[in-house]
From TrEMBL:
The lineage of its organism: Bacteria, Bacillati, Bacillota, Clostridia, Peptostreptococcales. GO terms for cellular component: plasma membrane. Residues 277-287, 299-311 have a biased composition (Basic and acidic residues). It comes from the Bacteria. The chain crosses the membrane at residues 14-31, 450-468, 495-518, 538-562, 617-637, 844-866, 900-927, 939-959. It is a multi-pass membrane protein. Keywords: Cell membrane, Coiled coil, Membrane, Transmembrane, Transmembrane helix. Residues 277-311 are annotated as: Disordered. InterPro entries: ABC3_permease_C, Membrane_comp_ABC_pdt. The keyword Membrane applies. This is FtsX-like permease family protein. Residues 338-421 form a coiled coil. Its main location: membrane. The keyword Transmembrane applies.
């Protein structure tokens, strides 16, 4: 009979029973759901990293690593696999485009850090590659062009300068959306590329990825201890191999130098011998030409003398012939014989012919001498040309030998200057995605330390209030049961079964529903920030489940026993009689006469009911204020997170875009650039901007280092603290850091930090200010400080640009104009960054929705249960006012006016609690490259209050039917 009575009690008060079940289900579901989320996320990540063989260590050396180094590491006891890989940051552009961006190229590995093909196929030839799937599947089939702006060593690293994309992949090295920073381009890596090892023209590896034998769960203490235990061994083997590598490089360089030295000495000796032989040949040739010239001069003199003699004889012969001719004429006139004269004439004429023949021979001899002189002149010309050519060749050879000698000396000096390798043993914690996933998955775990306690508290109060009212209402029945002989334990068992069955059903339902829904929703939200191509693994801890169910039952048992124990001390005859009504008490408002007298009768009744029933008042206050606080926190998360990029670019970085140059912009080049681009922008500030590391203790953090002069800087970047007060630009030896760095490393003004550049030069600076910053981590110093820190002047390869209007159109037009300049490598527009971060922040909307829905469910359950109890306890009162003629609306207003008033008080209290709760939540959200500020808009405050009242009105509408169904006759005679 008692069992039947218990079941009938459940059926007759099903609303009250379901209220207990629902509040327990919500509390257990919220607790177990949030508590199961991190184990589920970590288990999923663990499975993914195990499947894709993510490295346990990355070994790096500034002198590079070889295949022998890989083999040596692979032979270590705890090493399962070791594999060398090539990594290089490269400026690129897509075919047909001009703007360069940065990709990080990797060689494909098979033993460690295996990639997962998302679409397409893996590369087969040297001119094929696969790319980051975040770059888009539409890249398949397109070409990536290695930019000529890259250094010569980078360009020579690839066999092909144009690569065809054949697929998209994910990589365990890149777990979240961030791809890292670089000293190239705009300082950010746009994505990654994987190619076959033989596509890289190098024998040296950039790093060695190491996978250990044991696969402990990630982030676990066992895994941390395991890594710590093997760290020393990794450092020892890497230092040993680095020393061998150093000696090999020195020995190889020395052998090459000695070979070059021997070659130089041989070339030098050959040059001296060739020079001596050539000079001797030239001397012999000159002597031969000189001898020929002397012979021609001697012959010329002889011919001139002979010609002179012949011409003199010719004159004499001509004179003799004339004399003979005159004698012949005289003899003929005298009649004397002329035979002798004719014979003499003939003899003279014969002599003349001989002389003339001799002159002809002399003329021919002179012609030969003239021709000989011409040939001799040509010979001297050729000789002079040969001398000039030889002298030029000798000078060039001497210059080449001098250069070779200088290179030998430089080579010897460089060998002496070769530094021993700096080695780095990096574990997974240095991987941005791995570290961020740990902190992001811990956010939910940290939140569940507060929220579930609140839910369990409300559940306990609901159970206690419900069971107290139930026991009080059945006081007469308890007395009858005791009078009939039922034991106290049997009667208590009835109420324990009522509360515990509701709690158990609610706990079990909430356990499985929460463990499924919460991890799934949050995983989907974080899936937009992480590149896991894996299905969520659900994890439900037996201990956690038992604890949640146990606490729920404990709350139910406690809430049942406490009100029962008081009644069971009384005898049955006393219990059967109705409880004497409590003494009436005046509330505080009644003592304020001038105020109390102005209230109407119904208002007075409302205030008396509110403040006299303190348990119900407290319960309503806690439940509804908690609901409003959750709504404020949820909506505040949206305000704080979704607007963070606007806070950054509206309040701090007030320029429109960054320009990255491919060369150092000296003062003269800056002046020329301003002159050539006048009108393309409003103002420009040239700065040094590069990635660097901040070292504090044993922690290393990547930051963006800005080195700029203080003049005009505030027009581009407004450095201020959380209160909005301006911060002075740092002086020499000082730095201003952002708030997130200060918070993470527990730094304050006056502390010292160590900065390290890409070449591992480092130095210390003192913190002069801590500024507000939301996107990325910045450190600001002066160029003088940079020079003192790193021993070299800061290269100016970046600039901040402000346009006239700052509109999307004008900014993009201005950036396009500058991109056409040869010295401009890339631009990064802040508007594009806004879109990028805003898209990322949308992934957290699911968490906001979970908080809002949970708050709504809590408010509805609390309001429904308390309203149900209120109506049950006041049935006779409600029946009475209905008999007195109260209409339907007046009766509802009489009852629900208290709920609305309490809702208003609770909502106001919840606004303050929500602000505190939001601050706690924001402090627990630790995303590596983003810092959130606790901000709530007036609209969110108003919306939280409005939603709270909406829930209250929904409950009122749902319970109004209950008021209509109250039977006046049955209720008024119930006491009899």
């Amino acid at each position: 009979m008692l069992k039947k009575s218990t079941l009938r009690e459940i059926r007759s008060s099903l609303g009250r029973y379901l209220a207990i079940l629902a509040i327990v289900m919500l509390g257990v579901g919220f607790f177990c759901g949030l508590k199961s989320t991190k184990p589920a996320m970590v288990a999923t990540a663990n499975e993914y990293l195990k499947k894709n063989k993510m490295y346990d260590y990355q070994l790096q050396s500034t002198l590079g690593l070889t295949e022998k180094d890989v083999d040596a590491v692979a032979r270590q006891n705890e090493v399962e696999a070791a594999e060398g890989s090539v990594t290089e940051d490269v400026l690129f552009h897509y075919e047909g485009q001009a703007s360069d961006k940065v990709l990080r190229f990797h060689s494909i590995t098979s033993k460690v850090n295996t990639i997962h093909l998302m679409k397409g196929r893996l590369p087969k030839t040297k001119d094929e590659c696969v790319v980051d799937h975040n770059l888009g599947n539409d890249l398949i089939g397109k070409k990536i062009v290695i930019s000529p702006r890259n250094s010569k060593s980078t360009r020579n690293l690839f066999y092909r300068k144009e690569l065809k994309v054949v697929g998209t992949v994910t990589s365990p090295v890149y777990l979240n959306f961030e791809r890292g920073t670089t000293s190239l381009g705009d300082g950010k890596v746009s994505g990654f590329v994987y190619m076959n090892r033989d596509a890289f023209d190098t024998d040296v590896f950039t790093r060695i990825d190491v996978k250990l034998k044991k696969n402990y769960p990630i982030y676990s203490k066992k895994y941390k201890n395991y890594i710590d235990a093997n760290n020393a061994g990794m450092e020892d083997i890497l230092e040993e191999r680095a020393e061998i590598r150093y000696k090999d490089i020195v020995a190889k360089a020395t052998r090459k130098w000695e070979k070059n030295k021997a070659k130089y000495e041989k070339n030098y000796n050959d040059f001296l011998k060739e020079k001596a032989d050539t000079q001797q040949k030239l001397r012999d040739s000159h002597q031969k030409l000189t001898n020929s010239k002397a012979k021609l001069q001697k012959k010329s003199k002889e011919l001139n003398s002979k010609e002179k003699s012949l011409k003199s004889n010719l004159k004499k012969v001509d004179s003799g012939i004339r004399q003979v001719n005159a004698a012949i004429e005289q003899s003929k006139a005298a009649g004397a014989p002329v035979d002798r004269l004719l014979a003499q004439k003939q003899q003279l004429q014969g002599q003349k012919r001989k002389i003339q023949d001799g002159l002809l021979l002399v003329k021919k001899g002179k012609g030969k001498i003239k021709a000989g002189n011409q040939e001799l002149k040509k010979g001297f010309t050729k000789y002079n040309e040969a001398v000039a050519t030889v002298n030029k060749e000798f000078r060039e050879a001497e210059d080449q030998l001098a250069d070779a000698k200088e290179k030998l000396d430089d080579g010897k000096k460089k060998i002496a200057e070769i530094d021993k390798a700096d080695t780095y043993v990096l574990d997974r914690n240095t991987n941005t995605g791995y570290a961020c996933f740990d902190s992001d998955s811990s956010i939910v775990d940290g939140i569940c330390k507060v929220f579930p306690i609140f839910f369990f508290l409300v559940a306990a109060l609901v159970c206690m209030t419900t069971m107290t009212r139930m026991v009080d209402a059945q006081r007469t029945e308890i007395g009858v049961l005791k009078a009939l002989g039922y034991s106290n334990s049997s009667i208590i068992g009835k109420y324990l079964f009522y509360s515990c069955s509701a709690s158990l059903l609610g706990a079990v339902t909430g356990l499985f529903a929460g463990a499924y829904i919460f991890p799934r929703v949050i995983w989907k939200a974080y899936g937009m920030m992480y590149d896991f191509n894996a299905n969520l693994k659900y994890v439900l801890s037996p201990k956690l489940s038992a604890a949640a169910v146990g606490v729920s039952l404990l709350c139910a048992v406690s809430a049942t026993l406490l009100p029962c124990l008081g009644d069971f001390r009384e005898v049955p005859a006393q219990l059967i009689r109705p409880r004497a009504p409590k003494n009436g008490k005046r509330i505080l408002l009644e003592r304020i006469g001038f105020l109390w007298n102005r209230f109407s009768f119904l208002q007075k009744v409302t205030f008396r009911n509110i403040f006299r029933y303190k348990k119900r008042f407290l319960m309503m206050l806690i439940g509804i204020s908690g609901c409003t606080a959750l709504l404020v926190a949820g909506l505040g998360i949206r305000d704080s997170i979704q607007n963070v990029v606007n806070f950054q670019f509206d309040e701090i970085q007030k320029y429109d875009y960054d320009v990255t140059f491919d060369k150092n912009m000296t003062a003269e080049k800056q002046k020329t650039f301003r002159k050539n681009n006048d009108g393309a922008y409003k103002d420009i500030l040239f700065v040094h901007k590069n990635s660097a590391d901040i070292l504090h203790g044993d922690q290393v953090k990547s930051i963006i280092l800005i080195a700029a002069e203080s003049k005009g800087f505030r027009q581009f970047v407004d450095l201020h603290n959380h209160a909005g007060k301006s911060i002075s630009y740092p002086g020499k030896g000082q730095a201003v850091i952002c708030k997130k760095l200060a918070r993470n490393y527990n730094l304050s003004v006056g502390d010292e930090i160590t900065l390290r550049d890409d070449d591992y030069h480092q130095g210390k600076v003192k913190i002069s200010g801590i500024c507000e910053n939301y996107i990325y981590n910045y450190v600001y110093i002066t160029p003088d400080t940079y020079r003192d820190l790193f021993g070299t002047a800061a290269s100016i390869k970046s600039a901040m640009v402000r346009t006239a209007t700052g509109s999307d159109k004008s900014v993009h037009q201005s950036a396009t104009k500058l991109l056409k300049r040869d010295e401009v490598a890339a631009v990064s527009i802040n508007i594009d960054m806004r879109d990028r971060v805003n898209n990322m922040m949308k992934s957290l909307n699911a968490i906001v929705l979970v908080v809002v829905l949970s708050a709504g469910a809590l408010a509805f359950i609390v309001l429904y249960n308390l309203t149900n109890i209120n109506i049950t306890e006041r049935i006779r009162e409600i029946a009475t006012i209905k008999v007195l003629g109260f209409r339907k609306g007046e009766t509802a207003a009489y009852v629900f006016r208290e709920n609305i008033f309490l809702t208003g008080i609770s909502a106001l209290l919840g606004l303050g609690l929500g602000r505190i709760l939001l601050g706690f939540i924001i402090s627990r959200i630790n995303i590596d490259l983003i810092s959130f500020d606790t901000r709530i808009t007036g609209f969110s405050y108003a919306l939280a209050v409005i939603l709270t009242f909406v829930f209250a009105f929904i409950v009122s509408i749902a319970m109004s039917r209950r008021l209509e169904n109250i039977s006046m006759t049955e209720s008024l005679k119930s006491i009899e």
